[in-house]
Amino acid sequence: MKKSLTTRKTDDQVSRSPAFSRQSVIKAFQRLGYLDDFNSVHITVLRNTTFPFQRITVPNTPNISIELLRCYAEDLRLDLSTFVRRIESLSK
């Protein structure tokens, strides 16, 4: 069996997923009715102020990946593109 030769991709060839600032993501959730419920060194928990009082755990990292936003949108039954546009408008 032949071993395939693999070439390493340079930084220019690697596609990077977009990331959004943590502050703009939290502002977008606050506009949707979520408030700070718990803060620690590693995470921030946001709680919805209306029933069913859903909670969201946001990592305390400078940027939030699009993959994590996709999970949030799916859990909250939001349209991802609308939610991303809202975050982008807040970061400007």
Low-confidence stretches: none
Rg to the nearest angstrom? 17 Å
Q: Counting H and I runs of at least 4 residues, what is the number of helices?
A: 3
What is the 3D shape? globular
Q: Bin the strand percentage.
A: 25-35%
Estimate percent helicity. 25-40%
What CATH architecture would you give? 2-Layer Sandwich
Give, in spatial order, the strands making up the sheet with the most strands: 2-3-4
Largest sheet: 3 strands, antiparallel
Order of helices and strands: EHEEEEHH
Total domains, how many?
A: 1
Mean pLDDT across residues: 85
CATH top level class name: Alpha Beta
Attribute tags:
92 residues, Metal Transport, Frataxin, Chain A, 25% strand, globular
Description:
It is a single chain. Helix content is 36%, strand content 25%. The longest helix has 12 residues, at 80-91. It has 92 residues and is an alpha+beta fold. It is built from three helices and five strands, in the order βαββββαα. The chain has a single domain (19-91), classed as Metal Transport, Frataxin, Chain A (2-Layer Sandwich). The N and C termini lie far apart (54 Å). A three-stranded antiparallel β-sheet has the order 2-3-4, covered by helices on one side. Strands 1-5 form a two-stranded antiparallel sheet. The radius of gyration is 17 Å and the shape is globular. The mean pLDDT is 85.
Write the layout of secondary structure elements.
Layout: E1 19-21, H1 22-31, E2 34-39, E3 43-48, E4 55-59, E5 63-65, H2 66-76, H3 80-91
Antiparallel strand pairs: 1-5, 2-3, 3-4
Helix pairs in contact: 1-3
